[in-house]
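Good day; I would like, with your permission, to put a structural problem before you. A protein sequence and the structure tokens that stand for its backbone fold form the material at issue. Thank you for your consideration; the sequence and its tokens are set out here:
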Amino acid sequence: MRTGTVLTEKNLRQLLDEWDPIGVADEVPDEYDCMLAPFLGRLRRGADQAEIAAFLRTELVEHFGLTPAPAEPEAVATRLMALKAEAA
């Protein structure tokens, strides 16, 4: 992560670990690192909450093999956008 980046990998990793959709963050601290670069890229390009939620839903289904509750990705996207605004 470049110095001076407003929303850091550390912030994002913490959010993903708190969410922990597969329930392994305590045992596998880097489980969601595969999502960091795509997330940060989207945020840098100005992705909105809907795009972030769609990305999360796709990752849960296609990468992790889960079927998320309808509001789950949207709730995390809301938290992420709040974190982004707070860091600005």
